[in-house]
Amino acid sequence: MRFGILGPLEIHSVHGPVRLGSGRQRALLATLLLHPCRAVGVDELVEAIWDLAPPVNPRAAVHTFVARLRRSIEAGPEPARIDRQVGGYRLTVGPDDVDLGRFETLLRRAEAARERAGPEEERAALRAALVLWRGDPLVDVSSEYLHREVVPGLVELRLAALERRIDLDLRAPAGHPALVAELRGLTARHPFRERFWVQLMLGLTLCDRRSEAFAVYREIRRRLREELGVDPGEEMQRVHLALLRGEPAPTGTEHGAPAGPVAAAPPGASWTSSCQLPLDVGDFVGRGAELEQLLDELRRPHGGGPPVVAITGPPGVGKSALALRVAHELRPDFPDGQWYVRLHGAGPDRRDPAHVLAELLRTAGVDPAGRPDDPDERAALLRSRLADRRVLLLLDDAADAAQVAPLLPGRPGCAVLVTSRSDLGGLTALYGGRRLTLGLLVPREAHDLLRRIVGPDQLRLREATELADLCGRLPLALRIVAANLAGRPSLSPERYVAQLGAGDRLAKLSADGEQSLAVRSAFDLSYTGSDPAQRRAFRLLGLVPGPDVSVPGAA
Predict the structure, then answer these.
(1) Which terminal residue of the chain, N or C, has fewer Cβ atoms less than 10 Å from its own Cβ?
(2) Backbone angles phi, psi at 182, to 5 degrees
């Protein structure tokens, strides 16, 4: 049984074409075909079939679609087989049964011919590979996920192979008029792919049509300036200058040098430094000793691996604010990037490390089409991309060491800063991580924070002391009451102190007009993320009079 995805989705058996009933079945099959003989996770299948709108029980729905698909492709004398794997499904097919597999095999053959056999054999392999394309990949498969995450990478593979084949055609002694006609169509379909315009200029020059080559340069320069606000790239300007001087146009392939690389794996391995850090807190106060300790730990070499430092503490104590201050201070030390990921570890919606790895691989320049499906392989690829780089990773709000471990670089040069409400003892035990437990602000720092936000002339020391005590010197609570005072000039500090001291103080510690910015919300996340026994113990402890309780009393 043969399958085609380099165009409309096709299935052919010895008896002829095989039809699939539903669009979702087609999306399921296409996703399995993109990873032949490898397990595809149910989560990825759900995303490919339904994108962001899955049914109530998506795993059961996937199982149903797999059962229907099996009936279509596992019958007959040459069946393909779908096996259930841990956490997903695997489609077992022969190495040449999927056109994408044959395409990649021919690309590898072309790569080998470039190094050993010569241009004619390489060109023949590329031509055979490009013949397999029947149009836009998966054009008749209704899957927003595949067309967003996979199809662009496949298209880029084809265009890179096409560019390389045209480079070889330009070196051939004949056939240039037909090549010019092909390039006219390619520049019309891909108006901002400069390589095709360069090749069109070269083809026209080889046909002794230099005046048309000049016109092509003027046309693409006008388009780039008017629509993108940029000038033509270095290669195009080099070809244009050679034409102006009457010199032979540089083809980029003299002495056998390749004009445009074609990889057997999806492209996208370039590196771009990326600073993703959120805004630093402008009125940050205190934490001087902690700041110096963290800067020293993250700059200091740690044996054979990167420094890993965790800031732990209760909700609202200022872990993220301190981490951001540290990360902004360290920007010059990590010129290859400062990456920020919020892990949502405190609540029930904590992020899956596999999804975080996919996000980090995109940041590291890995095309989605070349991204492995297996989480361990993703982690290994990320470590490979980060090797010999200087990148700072800020992992905010981690659940536990298991959520963080797959994201860690493997070589010195990078550094990792983590915040968490948990103590993250596993990072220390397994990876030599350092921990800093953040406590409440000291009275002087709490006073400074309040008076800096409200204004030193609007808040006397006595009132600042009373407010700090009512807030338990918790930075989140302090910022909320200070913002409320600063936003309501008619409310006197004395009156606000009296209001906070009466009734349900926790309910009043929320920012005016911002229901999500509240001390209760911060603690709710930890509460809902706990197991039932922990939640019951927390409720019972609330009945104890006074601030302390012994272990026997809790029991």
Answers:
(1) C
(2) -65, -40
